[in-house]
Amino acid sequence: MFFNDSQLAEIRNLILHSNTITVVTHKSPDGDALGSSLGLKHAFMSLFSKQISVIVPDAFPESLDFLPSSDSILVFDVMKEKATEVLQATDLLFCLDFNHPGRVGDLEELLRETASRCHAVMIDHHQQPEPFVKYVGSQTSASSTCEMVYRFCRTLGMQETPDQFTATCLYTGIMTDTGSFRFSATTPETHIIAASLLKANIRHWEIHEHLFNQNSYSKIQMWGYAFMSKLVVLPQYKTAYISLSTEELERYNYQEGDLEGLVNYALSITGTKMGVLMSERKGKIRISFRSTGNFSVNEFSRANFEGGGHENAAGGVYFGKLDDAISKLHQVLPQYADKLNA
Ligand SMILES: [Mn+2]
User: Which residues face 25 on adjacent strands?
Assistant: First the structure.
């Protein structure tokens, strides 16, 4: 367990005596971010009859609309006033699926303020946590934050098989963050937890359907275009990358989440050790890194693209033009040639 017994006792006490509990998760929230946040919300409802507010920095993909109570989420970008009001009234804050205040975008200042003013708990599985809260629940080996939230709630008295709403949320995050149970962080324990969640009679095939079988025609066309015209393979560095400009995204009617998973195809090319996806958003370049084996994209992104994450999956950013971001990638790769070819 990522909290010791005395921390757990303190946190339980805080939950019991708090009037306003709020969950915040990271920017561009994914299945694990939303699943853990809404999962905690539903679990606390059953366990303590407590209402939790969930705040996300910006919009989430429509494919996650099916999550129970997703309509109650406050999106900071478009509901600044209400979200600020809630955070200012918060006396217990949960930070889920991120470990650095820089991961919440425009919400950062307000988050730092709230975290320093009230009691705050982090539950997260990314590398190198920054201890900006008192209770740092970090386990970098965990498959997902949802798996951690499951174990956390179990210590608070949750049944092995929780209610259907909680189970749906937690299953979604475990499934998406493990790449449908195939990434190396998937353990026997992960499967045991998933099995316990399935016993709540959740409709797991529908979850899969929502997440992976709802592609728009324009998205599939964009992926085809990316593969045909925008995929660059650099065999000398065992690296493949895809870059997409705002103009290209708009040409294919880009919707939030449309690029989810695309980077894995760059990595899937035989002989490739690192896959990179760069996309131009509002004047900055958002970057996804994936790797296999012992090449750490966490370190690579931290050193060159102001990001980080996991050893084999990380995010980054470049402030400038897309062409310059590509040049920077070409420029730094030679320093990593040995590691990439090891
Ligand atoms: Mn996660």
Answer: 96
Q: What's the pLDDT at 100?
A: 94
The answer as to CATH 3.30.1050.10 being correct for domain 5-211 is no
- Distance from Cα 97 to the centre of ligand 1, integer Å: 5
Helix axes 188-198, 145-155, angle to 10 degrees: 70
Q: Which fold has domain 217-341?
A: Diaminopimelate Epimerase; Chain A, domain 1 (3.10.310)
272: left (phi over 0), alpha (psi -120 to 50) or beta: beta
pLDDT tens digits, 237-257: 999 999 999 999 999 999 988
Q: Where are the domains of the chain?
A: 5-211, 217-341
pTM over 0.70: yes
Distance 15 CA to ligand 1 centre (A): 23
Q: How far is the CA of 125 from the centre of ligand 1 (A)?
A: 7
